[in-house]
Amino acid sequence: MGRKIKEECGVFGILEQAGTDIAPDIFLGLTALQHRGQEACGIAVSETEGTVGNCSFRKDLGLVSEVFHDPEFLGKLKGNLGIGHVRYSTTGASVAENAQPLVLSYIKGTLGLAHNGNLINTETLKRELVRTGAIFHTTTDSEVIAFHIARERVRTATVEEAVLAAARKLAGAYSLVIMSPRKLIGMRDPWGLRPLCLGKRGPAWILASESCALSAVGAEYVRDIEPGELISISAGGIHSDRSLQISRPAHCIFEYIYFARLDSRIDGISVYDARICAGKALAEAHPVEADMVSGVPESGLTAAMGYAEHSGIPFGYAFYKNSYVGRTFIRPTREARSSGVRMKLGVLDSAVKGKRIVLVDDSIVRGTTMANLIRMLKDAGAKEVHIRISSPPFRHPCYFGTDVPSGEELIANQYSETDLCEKLRQKLDADSLGYLPLSALPEMVKGLPICTGCFDAGYPFPVPESRH
Asked: What's the pTM?
């Protein structure tokens, strides 16, 4: 469907104190997080009995249901402690070697790590390791994190101290789930850029990128891991360390606009409520006379409902989404991208014919997809198509694990702020076009401190000049 902003990754971890094999639970948790990454996935498990943590794992390219299509694969993963990962590559190529979790043998036995996010000082950290003899098997920043933890473990009394020592060197976004021989550890970057939450099911404790994964395994949501917090779970209970916390976090606003699943809560905010709020703010900022409000499936539907509720214009479906096409991908030509849109979405002719349509989506990146959708609606007899976008214009890249491309690829960068809506409206052949104002974002997340770098270059910390 052309170029869309892609998800980052999803992480999941569980320690079952009753000693039950937990690979099937990790499978369910990763399936619930599949929207966060569809390129690769993996599961690693171990027993908490013994001294070295006998570990078994499986990972490969593909969806969770593809990599673990044979029930025997899960049956061979024995253990009551485990972590899992679904991946979309933001650092490192999409090859099997870069799939996670990463599993290392080190001084204390086995270390498993799954990472969601992206570092901006990877090369500096990697050079430090290479100069002292480290050999890398992947091209990911996640392996750099794992190696630094393993190296710090030589100098520290506990694995928690090693994780904290390594985290002090990291610049960027990270939510980590870590498996040591007897402990499950979660760590979130000080800005809270990537989400992580804690759940409980009987004697089992669970860490996950989103609360929807807790629901998938029948666990109760306990709380979000705080920005800068390390949490360690073992037979002895739960320990929390907040020594890396800072005064003002910067949560990723795009979790609420697009990434997170609709039934998740992140940092106390309902994703559904946030999108409804965005739609209402969009209607307030950009009203129009129309006969129907619709959304681009699936990402634009909830904001479209909010727009309809505030405006009083009826909500309806303009498109049918074909769920059996499979994963979408970047097609090489404009013609191929157009055919991809038509394979994925079909217009409901009788619903749109002769009507003035307000079409809501979460973003415009290159504009190719939106132009095709407008053409499809008008070919089906829509009288007018008014585009409303439930985020501000993308003008800057993201360096923290979100696939916002470089500035020259962003269509909003081709026009000045004053000319953008009118020039882009003409280019797309829309009847009007409006973006969510930047000022509406705080209300959308009830005042939660957020990162708006991809909209206004207001990054939460300095980005190296070489990355601009």
From this structure: 0.91
